[in-house]
Design goal:
Chains A, B: InterPro entries: PhoU, PhoU-like_sf, PhoU_dom. Two copies of one chain form a homodimer. Chain A is mainly α. Chain A is built from seven helices and no strands.
Chain lengths: ~230, ~230
C-alpha cells in the first residue's frame, strides 16, 4: 500500500536527486536546441524563450544544491553516497554553465541580425551543434547509468569536437579575409563556435564524473589535461 | 602547552579550509600574471610555467573538495558551517576555471608567435588584465573577510569590465578591417579578451558567494542575470 507521508525515505531522496539532475539535463538540451535555432533563424521569440529557460535552469541548480546539502546534513550519508551527492553539485554546476552558453548563443542572434551573413557561413555551426548535443546526451546517459565505458567514449570523442571546432575556426577566418564585410558577422560566429566547443568540454566533465562515480578513480590527469583545455587553434 | 596530536579540532579544520582557498586564490592570481606576461612577451618559458601551475591548481581544487566532503562526513556541521563548507566547493570550482583561463592565455602566446602583431594591439589587453586582476583580488578579500559591502562593490564594478571588454572588441575589429593580415592575430587577441572577461565573471561569482555567506541572501536574480551573462557586443 503506498504511503503518502511527507518525509520520504533516504533512497527516495537519492532517486529524487538523480531525477532532478536528469530533468535539468533535459531542459539544458532543449535550451541548446532553441538557442541554436534562434541563432540560425534569427528568431527573437525563440531567443527570449532560451533566456527564460536559463532562468529556470539556474533555479534548478540552486534546488539541487539545497537538496544535496540538506541530505548530507540530515542523512549523514556513507562514503559512496556522499561522493554521489557531492558529485551532483558539480554536475549541476556544469549544466548551469551549459545553460549560460545556450543563452549566449540565443543572444548572439540579436547581434547578428541585419549583418551581412551568408547562409553557407552557418553550416559548420550546425554540424558542431549536432556533435556537441550528442556528446552532452551521451554524457548524461553515462552519468545516469553510472556507465564507465560510455563515459570513456564521450571523453575520447571530445577530440572530434575539437577537430571540428578548429576546422570551423579556420573556415570562418577565410571568409573574413575574403571580404572585410564578413569580419563582424564571422567574429560573432567564432564566439558561437567557442561556446559550442565549451559545451563539449562540460559534457566531458560530466562524463569524467560518471567514470569516477562508477570506478572510484579519476581519468588520468594527463588525459584530462589534454582533452579539456588544449588550445588547438 | 601546544598539542601535537594529528587529529585537529573542528575549528582548526575550518581555518585550514579557508587558508587552502586563500592559497589557491594566490596561486591563481600569479597564474594570471604569468599567463598574461607570457602572452605579451611571447615568453615560452613563462607559458610552460603557467601550464604547470594550472596542474597544481587543479590538484588544489581536488584537495579542497576532499577536505570539504570529509569535514561534512565526520563533523556533521550545523547549517551555517555547512553552507560555508559547501560554498568553498563552489569557490574552488570558480578558481579552477580561472586557472584554466590563465593557461589558455599562456598557450595562446604560442599561437601568436610569428604573426604580424603590432605592439599597440596589446594595450587594451593590458588594461583589461589589470582591471580583472583587481576584481579577483577584491572578490577573494571579500570572501575571506565575509565582507558584504566589498562584495557588492565587486559586483557593481563588473560593468566596468564589460565596458572595457566591449571597447576592446570593437578596437580589435577595426584593426582587422584595416588590414587582412591583422585578422588572424587579432582573432587570437579577441579570445584572450574573452578569457579575461570570463575571469571577471568568476570574480563576480566569488563576490556573490561572499555576499550570500555574510547575509544569507542571494544578490537578486535580476542583478545576477544582468551582471553575469549579458552579451554586450
Amino acid at each position: 500500500m503506498p504511503s503518502d507521508h511527507i518525509v520520504s525515505s533516504y533512497s527516495d531522496e537519492l532517486i529524487q536527486l538523480a531525477e532532478t539532475i536528469a530533468r535539468m539535463g533535459g531542459q539544458v538540451e532543449v535550451a541548446i536546441e532553441d538557442g541554436t535555432a534562434a541563432l540560425l533563424k534569427l528568431d527573437r521569440e525563440l531567443a527570449d524563450k532560451t533566456v527564460e529557460a536559463d532562468r529556470r535552469i539556474d533555479g534548478m541548480q540552486r534546488q539541487i544544491d539545497e537538496m544535496a546539502v540538506s541530505m548530507i546534513a540530515r542523512r549523514q550519508p556513507m562514503a559512496s553516497d556522499l561522493r554521489a551527492i557531492v558529485t551532483s553539485i558539480h554536475v549541476a554546476s556544469d549544466l548551469e554553465r551549459v545553460g549560460d552558453m545556450a543563452k549566449q548563443l540565443a543572444r548572439r542572434s540579436l547581434k547578428i541580425e541585419g549583418l551581412n551573413l551568408q547562409p553557407g557561413f552557418y553550416n559548420g555551426v550546425k554540424n558542431l551543434t549536432a556533435l556537441v548535443m550528442s556528446q552532452l546526451k551521451d554524457a548524461l546517459d553515462a552519468y545516469a547509468a553510472r556507465n564507465a565505458e560510455e563515459a570513456i567514449e564521450v571523453c575520447n570523442r571530445d577530440d572530434e569536437v575539437d577537430a571540428m571546432y578548429t576546422s570551423l575556426f579556420r573556415e570562418l577566418l577565410t571568409y573574413m579575409m575574403e571580404d572585410p564585410r564578413n569580419i563582424t558577422p564571422c567574429t560573432h560566429l567564432l564566439f558561437c563556435a567557442k561556446s559550442l566547443e565549451r559545451i563539449g568540454d562540460h559534457a566531458t566533465n560530466i562524463a569524467e564524473r560518471a567514470y569516477y562515480l562508477q570506478t572510484g578513480k579519476q581519468l588520468s590527469e594527463d588525459v584530462e589535461e589534454l582533452q579539456r583545455t588544449q588550445i588547438r587553434v
